[in-house]
Amino acid sequence: MNNFRYRMAQLFAGRTGVDALGRTFTWVAMILMIVTMFTHSNIAYLLAMACLVYSIWRMFSKNYQKRYYENQMFLQKTAKIRGFFMRLTPNVRNSIIKARYNMEQRRTYKIFKCPSCKQKLRAPRGRGKIQVNCSRCHTQFIKKV
Ligand SMILES: [Zn+2]
After folding, report:
1. Which of 35, 36, 100, 131 could cysteine-pair with 45, CB 3.0–4.6 Å?
2. What is the 120 CA–ligand 1 centroid distance (Å)?
3. What own/partner pairs with CB < 8 Å and gap ≥ 24 does 64-73 have?
4. Does residue 85 form part of some domain?
């Protein structure tokens, strides 16, 4: 394994390797491959191959200064788009965490509303009929949990 790693390092010495631009092209190629699978479009297939070849060619390109400059240009031009996705990602992650938390809550707690003030209340499940004292309006009622 170390030998393999050493050979890989040798292979990439003085070459561009994987950068943001190359990675993007790899992703675009993958997406286009999936598109090809569903649509059987020749254009999508050719574009996928072109993107793949380009990203591989970038990786092995010895003119890394030029590749570095291209990558910088790419990063600059896509700064706004990337910023948008960066802001989007934590929101998506948060809502997944929230949904998971809610599911967990629903499994261990019975969630219901107070009949008089509609305040959301919860009680641990499996206790049978319990007397609930609403935390907001102090109405007492019987609830099966
Ligand atoms: Zn209430």
Report:
1. 36
2. 8
3. 64/14, 64/15, 64/16, 67/16, 67/19, 67/21, 68/16, 68/19, 70/21, 71/19, 71/20, 71/21, 71/22
4. no
User: Rounded to an integer, what distance in angstroms lies between the CA atom of residue 138 and that of residue 145?
Assistant: 19
Is 39 among the domain residues? yes
pTM: 0.55
* 103 Cα: distance to centroid of ligand 1 (angstroms): 24
Q: How far is the CA of 138 from the centre of ligand 1 (A)?
A: 6
From 44, 63, 82, the end of a domain falls on 63
Q: How far is the CA of 104 from the centre of ligand 1 (A)?
A: 24
56 within domain boundaries: yes
> Which residue range(s) make up the domain with 134?
109-144
Residue 38 lies in a domain: yes
Q: Quote the ligand 1 centre to 133 CA distance (angstroms).
A: 8
Using one digit for the tens of pLDDT, what is the confidence trace for 33-69?
999 999 999 999 999 999 999 999 999 998 989 999 9
